[in-house]
Amino acid sequence: MLRYVPLAVLVAAAVPATAQPTAPPPPQTANARAKPNPLDKVVCKTEEVIGSRLNSQRVCMTVREWQDQADDSRQALEKIQQGQGVVPSG
């Protein structure tokens, strides 16, 4: 009988601990629930350094910045093809 007394004490002590209700999770803010914008994802690319066959550098920008850079390059190419030339930007 004395063997079961410590077991009974452990079981009795564990039952109230598991029976207690847990606190509800804190409400999420609107920013926490909002899906992340895919344009804000950072993408890294390795670009070759002009004038070197062995040197390259890693460039990291957001998807939005990569798109802006591609748009700027496309517009500059269109101006060159139309004979307007390109004015260097800041």
Mean pLDDT: 78
User: What oligomeric state best describes the polypeptide chains here?
Assistant: single chain
**Strand content range:** 15-25%
Distance between the amino and carboxyl termini? 88 Å
Give the overall silhouette: elongated
Structural class: alpha+beta
What does this structure look like?
This protein is α+β, with helices and mostly antiparallel strands. The protein has a domain at 36-82. The chain contains three helices and two strands; from the N terminus they run H-H-E-E-H. The protein has helices at 4-19, 30-33, 63-81; strands spanning 42-48, 56-62. It has a two-stranded antiparallel sheet with strand order 1-2. A hairpin with a 7-residue loop joins strand 1 (42-48) and strand 2. The longest helix has 19 residues, at 63-81. The N and C termini lie far apart (88 Å). The mean pLDDT is 78.
Summary, kept brief:
This protein is of the alpha+beta class. It has helices spanning 4-19, 30-33, 63-81, and strands at 42-48, 56-62.
Which helices and strands, and how do they pair?
Elements: H1 4-19, H2 30-33, E1 42-48, E2 56-62, H3 63-81
Antiparallel strand pairs: 1-2
Q: What key attributes describe this structure?
A:
two-stranded antiparallel sheet; alpha+beta; 90 residues
